[in-house]
TrEMBL record:
Keywords: Membrane, Transmembrane, Transmembrane helix. The chain crosses the membrane at residues 20-40, 64-90, 111-132, 144-164. This is DUF2254 domain-containing protein. It comes from the Bacteria. The keyword Transmembrane applies. The lineage of its organism: Bacteria, Pseudomonadati, Bacteroidota, Flavobacteriia, Flavobacteriales.
Length: 424
């Protein structure tokens, strides 16, 4: 039962990030609400409201058709314009910053809810128009349904104003960086809180039994408790060979077990791991480092030439690295019967090298950027860490950055300026 709920949660988490998810749900809600209003109108709801609030009721069938038709045409135009704005936002973000940003922007619930409100209102008004006859008498017109259509239209106009404001904010690089940073930091803090298990040494797995995946995908989530139960049941230790968040190719070795497992047991382990064809920062904090690094690198390219954006990106990388230093490279999970499981991870050394390799390549010729990167590394060097090796990894990156900067910079003044920062 637990595995079933995990599957449902992973499926919902994946589908929720699609741009059509909330609009589809709200469109169905608009259709159902239209049917409900038709039923209530058959029960004489408009007649009762007409006697109490006659000024709010439309008393002529032609007038009702005209009002709803105008509302329908205006809403369709607004929806088309809104979708065009979303597509423009995605195109601009992809061209100016990074294509990796698109899943995060598409999954913005505010945009989805506004588009869903437009679709729900349009469908509601269409079905309300079916119930109006031009020759209807005063008490035969579905006045409450018409009034609800007008209120929906007003709500869409108000939400459209908010949509324009929000989409103008969403394209600003500071807001994009801030959103990525917050999601990654929340994910890191969650991992730090949940990884407080044993950190004992794990045995060498070279001689263990290996098992391959039948279908590839991005390794997103895993049910640790369920797999530990499998370890107890089969009296074995398990090692997941691919780090969480990375792509696991089909027919690649993904699982190792100290004792041989039958196909049913392997399938049970894989069933407790979710794979996807895309990546989201809230599921994989490593993606945030990739995205922010790509933004900085693209900002320093000759076509963009925006060092201010690159400096902002390095500021966010500094905070993320500081948070990552509070997480261990390896954590071993222990079952009730003292059987262990470990998941491969991207070490801090690998992570900082991948980020710095890109930054050095595109920023080593700019003295201001070199100073900013060295400031980041020196700041990280004095931060508290979970493992002492992190300090040596940072010092190695400082030495490499200094060496490449001296080779790239031609001015002695620039070289002397970075020397004081590099060896603080």
């Amino acid at each position: 039962m637990k595995r079933f709920f995990i599957r449902i949660f992973d499926f919902f988490n994946t589908v929720e990030s699609k741009i059509a998810f909330y609009p589809s749900l709200m469109a169905i809600s608009g259709f159902l609400f239209a049917l409900l209003m038709m039923y209530l109108e058959e029960q004489g709801m408009s007649r009762k409201v007409m006697d109490v609030l006659p000024r709010l009721m439309v008393e002529n069938g032609d007038t009702a058709l005209t009002i709803l038709s105008a509302c329908l045409g205006g809403l369709i135009s607004l929806m088309v314009f809104s979708f065009s704005m979303v597509m423009l936002l995605l195109s601009q973000a992809s061209n100016n910053y990074s294509p990796r940003l698109l899943p995060g922007l598409i999954s913005d619930k505010r945009h989805q809810l506004i588009l869903g409100l437009f679709m729900a209102s349009i469908i509601y008004i269409i079905f309300t128009l079916f119930s109006i006859e031009p020759s209807d008498e005063k008490y035969a017109i579905p006045g409450v349904s018409v009034l609800m259509g007008i209120l929906f239209t007003i709500s869409c106009l108000v939400s459209f104003i908010y949509f324009i404001h929000n989409i103008s904010q969403s394209i600003q690089i500071n807001n994009i960086l801030d959103k990525i940073f917050i999601e990654a930091k929340n994910r890191l803090e969650l991992l730090i809180r949940t990884e407080k298990e044993t950190v004992q040494a794990f045995p060498n797995t070279n001689t263990w039994h290996s098992y391959k995946l039948e279908r590839g995908g991005y390794f997103q989530n895993i049910s640790v408790d369920n797999i530990l139960d499998i370890c107890d049941k089969h009296a074995t230790r398990i090692y997941i060979t691919i780090p969480k968040g990375l792509y696991a190719p089909s027919n690649a070795i993904f699982l190792k077990s100290e004792k041989k497992l039958d196909k049913k047991a392997v399938d049970q382990v894989v069933a407790n791991i979710s794979f996807a064809r895309g990546e989201l920062v809230k599921d994989n904090y490593l993606l945030a480092f990739k995205q922010i690094t790509e933004i900085a690198v693209k900002a320093m390219s000759p076509g963009i030439n925006d060092p201010g954006t690159a400096i902002n990106a390095i500021d966010y990388l500094t905070e993320l690295f500081s948070c990552r230093m509070q997480k261990r490279d390896h954590v071993t999970y222990t079952s009730n019967d003292n059987f262990e499981m470990r998941i491969a991870t991207i070490t801090f050394r690998e992570l900082i090298y991948n980020v710095m390799a890109s930054l050095r390549t595109y920023c080593k010729h700019d003295p201001i950027m070199v100073q900013k990167i060295l400031w980041m590394l020196n700041y990280l060097k004095v931060q508290p860490t979970m493992e002492e090796s992190y300090q040596f990894d940072i010092e190695e990156e400082i030495d490499t950055m200094m060496k490449q900067a001296r080779e790239s910079l031609e001015s002695e003044r620039d070289i002397s300026a970075i020397k004081g920062i590099g060896y603080n």
